[in-house]
Design a protein that fits this description.
The protein has about 120 residues and is mainly α. The protein has 6 helices and 3 strands, in the order ααβααββαα. The chain has 2 domains: about 70 residues, Winged helix-like DNA-binding domain superfamily/Winged helix DNA-binding domain (Arc Repressor Mutant, subunit A, Orthogonal Bundle); about 35 residues. It has a 3-stranded antiparallel sheet with strand order 1-3-2. Strand 2 and strand 3 form a beta hairpin. Helix 2 packs across helix 4 and helix 3 crosses helix 4.
Length: about 120
């Protein structure tokens, strides 16, 4: 399965978001996903299996529990693919950052001048 096929599903993206915050048990992942998406435990398990099989998630046993974590390798591959397209959004975002910094600077200068003028 292609990385974007895996990431195209909102449930799998949400699972990865949860796992990005740290290792979670399959039960904890299921509880959040069931509450947010209203799907069954077997359906959540199937999404976890897809993430494992595609290499996006790793699992390790801890007694009777299964602990899931993000595997960053496929995400790095996605990032490398997206790198070809960053030129379309990076310059406008850089320009926005410059304008925001300019506005903050002007507000600071204006605020300091107003403080100096007040009695």
């Amino acid at each position: 399965m292609h990385a974007f096929d895996v990431l195209g599903d909102p449930v799998r993206r949400r699972i990865l978001e949860l796992l990005a915050d740290g290792e979670m048990t399959s039960g904890a992942v299921c509880a959040v996903i069931q509450a947010e998406f209203g799907i069954s435990q077997p359906a959540v398990s199937q999404h976890l299996k897809v993430l494992r099989d595609a290499g996006f998630a790793a699992v390790r046993p801890d007694g009777a529990r299964r602990l899931y974590t993000v595997n960053s390798d496929p995400l790095q591959e996605v990032d490398a693919w997206l790198d070809r397209f960053r030129r379309f959004w990076a310059p406008p975002l850089d320009a926005l950052a410059t304008e925001l910094a300019r506005g903050k600077r002007e507000r600071r200068l204006r605020d300091s001048e107003e403080k100096d003028e007040s009695p």
